[in-house]
Each structure stands twice: as structure tokens, then as C-alpha cells.
Amino acid sequence: MLCTAATAVLVAACSGAGGGTGSGGEPAAAPGKDDKLTLTVYSKFTSREYGIVTKGLEKLKEKFPNIEIKHEGNQDDDKLTQSIRGGNPPDVAISFYTDNLGAWCHNGSFQDLKPYLDRDKVDLSQLPDAVRSYTEYQGKRCAMPMLADVYGFFYNKDLFAAAGISAPPKNTTELFSAAKKLTQFNPDGSIKVAGFIPTMPFYANQAQYWAPNFGATYLGPDGKSRLAESAEWKAMFEFQKKLIDFYGHDKLEQFKAGLGDEYSADHGFQRGKLAMMIDGEYREAFIKDQAKDLKFGTAPPPVLDSKPDRYGGGLVTGTIVAIPKGAKNPGAAWELIKQVTLDTSTLVDLANGLKNVPSTKASLTDPKLQVDPEFKTFLDMYGGGKLLPNPSTPIGDAHLKAVNDFAEKWQAGSVPDLAEGLKKVDAQINDELAQKGG
Q: Which end of the chain lies in a sparser environment, N or C, as judged by fewer CB atoms within 10 Å?
């Protein structure tokens, strides 16, 4: 789940924001057991997921029975940054979008958690390396991971059987072959069932979800964008265009227009209109709630033919929790953050309800964690050491948006030269890094 609209507001609203608990400052004291106060929590959770998360937040009352939790759902990153700018932030911020973390850490919108971690002697080795990397920026830890999202591969077992395909594809050659076999056309030539939709952005089809499977990275050792020099980015976009050309760009656009929204019951995969897709582990919960009769399997995403060692990997991101600058109850906020990010029982309950991957090593092996074959795929990927996060940058997700904007132009055939097009993307990203990086 990626926010592409929040970056401009986030950077503009919070640039120059000072303060927060500095790395050399004293942490705010924890509340007394009988203290009465209200903790306001912002998150983007809604509907079924909102109730599950609220229940997890309420577990803090086992330690602090007089603390009330005011959980305000459907609060996106724009609303969060506007509340910080206006001087009325929540006590705790929960965000889906790790890509904005670099900007939040860089400009002080999220408080440094190191004083709390040091005081309470929190052992961060209980978090896997990839998770630690996407919750800090340049050594500054201004967020903690609540749950992780691992992006794998979903496929329709009935459609596979009808097409005579016995196993999910492991590389791009197999993916292209399977997409052709699984695609069904109507008599007028329009698409009836798509084997695999290659257009970006659509559902979880975005450049950042594909990149790890091609071994493509955004920034070079010097911290600058180097897409045009990358054989992996070129291979990724060439493969994408090959699939686009197989279907026809206009036919794909027409087909997509008839599919349901990403989180609705009419999602194309859930209605049997899409045979294969890349998505996060959380999709399993939607399928079991909205499409109970769908027979599906999961696997690691296919990788570039020349990168077989990447198989078993993919993108990892997740839900992050932080104390915003100006929070009224930072000491109590930290106690809530510890509850939902480090307590095994709380994490397992949240993981079981949301079908997300729990983010500590202890919760991954807890016997109460519900693991079926489809979910086990993501746990195996999570523990396999091949997952990659998006880089944290001071420009939030602006670099991701730039690449996806380019992908739209490329797939539509309006970019005549791939290398020259990627050079322009590099220039755009590097210009923003120079302006915002300080």
C-alpha cells in the first residue's frame, strides 16, 4: 500500500519542523499505573481492520486501566502532517507508508525514540534486519514496526488447472508464457480474463513492488539516483513493455476499467478475472472474507531470468508507529508503542486478525500464530534473508512516484528511448534530493 499524493504535503508542511525528543534528551516519564489520561491515535485503518487494531491498542489497559484510547481511523499521512503543522498532533501516529519515514525523521516530525529505547534497555536484535532498516533513517530511529507486509505472488488454482499449468512461474520467461496461456479473449478481441496485468500503477502493480525481483535498486553508493545506468531497471521496463504489447495498451485500459477497486469485494483476482498477481500477504484476509470459494495459491514472485538467486525474495514494508512532534502525552505514547510493537501476544493477535506478518522474531514462532499454507509462503520469505525495503530518503516517496509516472508514459508508448527517459527520471529525483536533502 503506497501513498503517492502525500509527499508534497508532507515535505512542505513539515520542512524545518524542529524539536521532538532529541537523541541527547531525556525521555518523558511513563504514566503511573492509576493515572487518568486519553491517548489519541491516528491510523488509516477502517471497517473490519479498524476494530481489530482498536482491540490491540486497548490491551494497554491491562497495565494502565485508567488510560483511554481514542483511536481515529481513516487518517492518512496528509491529515497527520497537517495536524503536526497545526500544533495539534495525535499522541501516537500509525502509518502504512514507510516511504515517508525519511522525510519525517529528517525534518523532526517524528520524535527520536533512542532515549526511550536506551532507558528501557530494548533489544532491537529481536527485529529482523530488513525491518530495522525501514524504521530508521541515517541511524536515527523515529518509528517502530507494528506489523510487516511481504509482497509475494498469488495465482488462481482453477485457472492454472484449466490451462494445464502445474506450478507458479519462477522467472520472467515462465511468467510471460503463463500469462499468454491463462489469458482469455472475447469474440470481439477484448480481454475476458487476464493472465497477468503489467500496467503500472494498478492494484499492487507498482515499480517498487517489482524492483526487488529484478535486482533493481534506486540509489547508488553516492545516494544519487542511477536508474539509467542500471541493466536491471532496463530489463524490468523491457519485460513490462513486452507484456503490454502482447495485450495491447488500449485493450488493457478497457479491461482494467471493468474491474473492482483494490480493496473491494469486486477485486479482479477475487472475481476470477485475473489469474496471477503480485500482492501483500494481507490479501489472504480479503479473499477469505470476500471470496470464500476462490481456490488460490501463493509463492514468491517470479524473478529476472539472470537473477535466479533472487527467487524467494521480494519487497518488505509495513506499518510503522511513532510519537509525533508536539504530542501531549509522549511518555504514555511510548508505553502504547511498546505494547503494539514488542509484546508478543498483542502482535500475534493483530497478525491473526489482519493476516499481516508479525514483526518480532518471537512472534513469528509463537504457537498461537495461525499459519496456513498460503500464509506460510510469506513467513518463509520473511525469514529467508532476501527481502528488500524501499530506501528511506528525505524526499519521502517522491522517487517512487517519479518512477511510476515514468512507467505510465513508457507503457503507453510515449517514451521513444528507454535510456534517455530514465536519465530524465534520474535528473528529476536528484534535483529533489539536492533541494530537500540539506
A: C
3-class SS of residue 111:
coil
**Looking at residue 26, which CATH number applies to its domain?**
3.40.190.10
Q: Are 183 and 292 within one domain?
A: yes
Provide the whole-model pTM.
0.84
Quick check: 4 and 397 in contact, CB under 8 A? yes
Structural contact between residues 400 and 7, judged by C-beta atoms closer than 8 angstroms? no
Q: Is the dihedral of CA 128, 129, 130, 134 positive or negative?
A: positive
What is the domain range of residue 295? 150-315
As a whole number of angstroms, the distance between CA 378 and CA 43 comes to: 24
Instruction: Give the pLDDT of residue 100.
Output: 80
Which triple of cell numbers denotes residue 412?
A: 503507453
Q: Are residues 163 and 302 in the same domain?
A: yes
In the chain, the amino acid numbered 310 is R
Q: What would the grid cell of residue 60 be?
A: 494497554
pLDDT at 264: 92
Residue 71's identity, in one-letter code, is: H
Residues 270 and 372 in one domain: no
Is position 378 within any domain? yes
Q: How many domains does the chain have?
A: 2
Predicted confidence (pLDDT) per residue in 126-175, tens digit: 988 878 888 888 888 999 999 999 999 999 999 999 999 999 999 999 99
- Please tell me what DSSP assigns to residue 362: H
210 in Cβ contact with 199 (< 8 Å): no
In a domain, 105, yes or no: yes
